[in-house]
Amino acid sequence: MTVGRSLASSASAAADASPADAAAARVASLDAFRGFLIFWMLLANHIVWSPSIPVQLRHAPWGAGVTLTDVVFPWFLFVMGVAIPLSAARSRQAAGGLPPVLRILRRSFLLVVLGLVVYTSVYGRLYLGLGILQVLGLTYLVAATTARLPVGGRAALCAALVLGHWALLKFAPVPGVGSGVLEPGRNILHYLNTTYFQRYHLAGLASLVPTSAIVIAGTLAGEVFARATLPAVRRIGWLVGGGAALTLAGWLWQLEMPFNRALWTPSLVLWVIGTGALAVGGLYGLLDVRGWRAVALPLVVLGSNAILVYMGAILFRVYVVQRLRLPVGSEGPTLHEAVLGWLVKEMGALHGAWAYASAVVAFWWLVLFVLYRRRIFLRL
Questions:
Q1: I want to staple 89 with a disulfide (CB 3.0 to 4.6 A). Which of 24, 107, 303, 344 is the partner?
Q2: CA dihedral sign, ordered 237, 239, 240, 243
Q3: pLDDT by residue (tens digit) across 119-176?
Q4: Do 306 and 33 meet the contact criterion of CB atoms below 8 Å apart?
Q5: Are 141 and 108 in contact (CB under 8 A)?
């Protein structure tokens, strides 16, 4: 894990670069989309809940479809997959360094270890489960090690994972329940977790099948950027056309097996991949082709250090915001209680909650902006 100067080129430098350099250059649309996901994550994680908070900032109840908050993590998985071919292109141009297999293992291992650190801090005890960073690390391992397969092979593997997960949910029998039941506590994934995985701190292990499919699909989308000779119009066409087809397929599939984030239903997986490709394709056309990068700078700043801000926001909240008492050294309110209490008193419960969450987002944006200006990025 290193924190160092970015290898990304500026927009003007990328325009003057050779085709090989252009393939390895940082794609602004990916940083912008990733930045939007980080923005929404910060907002959703720090907004103080009340009945007046918009539904899209909350997770959907079981059986009620999905909200924007539900699909932030799946989209993040997709974007991680898109970046894999670009990262491989940059690595091929760099002199020296670790062999590809060792580099993949190192990144995967570091993500799992960082997840262990983050969630152990959150729970105040050793946490060995599968949190977000652990899932990122393990799905990255699957997608990066299969990224050398031909495009057709990866597409077939992705389809096999999605169909296999569908067959598990649809046909695998649950003792005392039957097959095809998708109710809370009465489904095959719950049965596998409680009967087999939980005892080994691996609850959620079966979710690596659909989540890996999302990341592998992302690598397929990333090929349109890694192939330097592919015209911009063709790139947009592949992303938007393929994204629209998969979005429609996912929506049609949910008529048979509804969207469910807890179960990672295949209909949701297809919809996430499709809408993710649409978002990346649309942003690529606006930012990288039309040159509207300056408009998206606030999002690009957030997206350029996504892992750092994800970890930093959680650890800062655990060790500073929720522990520091005012006055310092006293038994007074925590920093969180003091700031939120003052905002609620001055602005009311609803506006105070929005002001608090907005202040958190602004704080981390300023931190990342300083790092961005200095071209310092966390690299695993």
A1: 24
A2: positive
A3: 999 999 998 889 999 999 999 999 999 999 999 999 999 999 999 999 999 999 999 9
A4: no
A5: yes
**What distance in Å separates the CA atoms of residue 159 and residue 213, rounded to the nearest whole number?**
8
Residue with tokens 């292990």: 205
What the block records as the tokens of 301 is 């700043």
Axis-axis angle for helices 306-316, 349-373 (nearest 10): 130
Instruction: Return the number of other C-beta atoms located less than 10 Å from residue 293's C-beta.
Output: 17
Going by their DSSP bridges, the two strands 178-179 and 173-174 should be labelled as: antiparallel
Please choose, from the candidates 135, 128, 120, the residue with its C-alpha nearest in 3D space to the C-alpha of residue 314.
Answer: 120
Please, is 376 exposed, middle or buried when counting C-beta atoms within 10 Å of its C-beta (0-12, 13-18, 19+)?
middle
Task: Name the token pair of 110.
Answer: 């570091």
Calpha distance 219→241 (Å, rounded): 17
Could you tell me if 257 and 170 are in contact, meaning their C-beta atoms sit under 8 angstroms apart? yes
Residues paired with residue 179 on neighbouring β-strands, in sequence order: 173
pLDDT tens digit string along 318-376? 999 999 998 887 888 999 999 999 999 999 999 999 999 999 999 999 999 999 999 99
Give the SS3 label for residue 60: coil
State phi, psi for 4 to the nearest 5 degrees: -150, -175
HSE-up of 29 (CA within 13 Å, CB side)? 25
